[in-house]
Amino acid sequence: MKRCFIVMLGALFGATFFAAAAHAHGVIGKRFIPSTLTLEDPFPSDEMDLLSFQRSSKNKQGRETSVGFEFSKRLTPDFALGVGWEYLFVEPREADARRTSGAANPEFSAKYALFRSVEHEGIFSLGLGVEAGSVGSKRVAERVTTISPAFFFGKGLGDLPDSLDFLKPFSITGSFAVNNPANRFTGSGDEKERNTTTLSYGAALIYSIPYLQSAIKDVGLSAPFDRMFPVVEFNFESPISGPEKRHTSAFANPGVIWAGKYVQLGLEAQVPINNFSGKNVGVTGLIHVFIDDIWPNIFTWTPWGVIGPTSK
Q: Is 277 a residue whose pLDDT tops 80?
């Protein structure tokens, strides 16, 4: 796992030498809002997480490491479908217990941008996620299908009065999802297991250095720092049924995102902020590709015609 982390770290800093101006993904008005690592962003898009990596904090079940990818494809300018998959490495809490690994269940998603405001740099979207139970490895994958209706939002602060110029580079994104198991119980007899409904929610605070230099004041930062977005994400998960009801896990995820024309890179720490979340710090990394800018006529094709790269 240390080797995987070194590869991610090298990709984050090495690819900055291929810098180019950030394109229109996540653009609302004059604002570019990058895809965050922990929370789902509100923008339907033609994009791919070429490689995502997470080594979680250690909790009472043990520690989990995941490596995966995700692909998203627009069918209209405001509607996209997605599919994602991960490979999991599970380390039980007990020192003498056997480690295991295997494919997780695939996850399918749909997202629709219900409202956009160019003037106020805002967007509101609805989504639906489905984790197909019992498709992945029996050693690590959940046996129950989970259906998750969700909503997402994004808001830039560029419409603040000029007296608050120092706040204008900030933007806020967030999400809220209800994770409903298709079956309340799985298994039978001594192996019967109760499947709980949970709430997943959170918010991300993002500072845009490109916005600062282009719209507020050029402070003279050069590559790679002129394409960076310091970020902190807060994510929570709360069971609303079962024996662990109200045992909310909570994390703060400080890090940095770098965005170029064709690729976005990110690296964050995962810091537990309560007793239910674990005892040590995890790490999350992401290589995210803007596929509609790489080959627009292919990756933005639909049965109704070519959409073209995400509009500015």
A: yes
